[in-house]
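Quick one, tokens below:
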């Protein structure tokens, strides 16, 4: 009689890491009878879940999406972050037809170019270096009016790191010689993925019709949010205005 196949169980322990150091390590300090019995009974090994081992740049932390993608594929899957970084490094990025077409159409029609996305180096949904490359590209293409709608992170980066990224962005805008920050918004509003229109609407209104909180600069806006106890992810969509209180974009 044929043996019945034994079931195989794939169990995801979200946030579980292997680190022998006990200080500040809840897993190493805890009593784990079931987990430890499994290690004693079955063969096991340790896998690296970050950096080049999962298709990310060296030193880049992994995350849930990257981990599940590599597990499902059973091989290293090079992430968009790595692919875009490489395309910038070898200059393929700057001859991307889709990007060039958008920029050239804006220039031909005398329209402003609007760039929106997560302004951090979290590396999960974006990387701020890619924004810098887009700005350089826009400069090279001769665009004049470029406006940035910066989404603040605070989930894949520390909760009050947004000001550092905005300061870096403002400095790079001056160095490259193009672009202005038109709005800022916490990702809680601008990147909601649970179909909560009441959140998204606030970010939409700020970017499209210039309605929402107002401030004379992105730095001032985020500093005032911190003073109110509001961290990056939850910063209310804010429109940057000129001296006449009109949106700059």
């Amino acid at each position: 009689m044929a043996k019945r196949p034994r079931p195989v169980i794939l169990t995801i322990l979200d946030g579980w890491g292997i680190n022998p150091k006990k200080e500040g390590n809840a897993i190493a300090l805890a009593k784990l009878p079931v987990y430890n019995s499994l290690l004693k009974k079955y063969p096991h090994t340790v896998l690296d879940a970050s950096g080049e081992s999962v298709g990310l740049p060296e030193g880049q932390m992994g995350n849930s999406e990257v981990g599940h993608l590599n597990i499902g594929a059973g091989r290293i899957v090079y992430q968009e972050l790595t692919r875009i970084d490489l395309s910038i490094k070898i200059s393929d990025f700057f001859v991307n037809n889709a990007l060039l077409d958008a920029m050239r159409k804006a220039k031909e029609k005398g329209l402003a170019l609007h760039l929106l996305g997560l302004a951090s180096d979290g590396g999960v949904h974006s990387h701020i270096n890619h924004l810098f490359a887009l700005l350089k590209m826009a400069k090279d293409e001769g665009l004049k009016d470029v406006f940035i709608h910066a989404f603040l992170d605070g989930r894949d980066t520390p909760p009050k790191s947004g000001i550092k990224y905005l300061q870096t962005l403002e400095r790079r805008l001056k160095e490259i010689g193009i672009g202005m920050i038109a709005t800022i918004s916490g990702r809680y509003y601008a990147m909601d993925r649970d179909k909560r229109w009441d959140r998204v609407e606030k970010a939409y209104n700020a970017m499209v019709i210039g309605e929402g909180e107002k401030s004379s600069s992105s730095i001032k806006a985020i500093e005032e949010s911190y003073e109110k106890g509001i961290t990056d992810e939850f910063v209310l969509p804010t429109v940057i205005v000129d001296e006449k209180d009109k949106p700059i974009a």
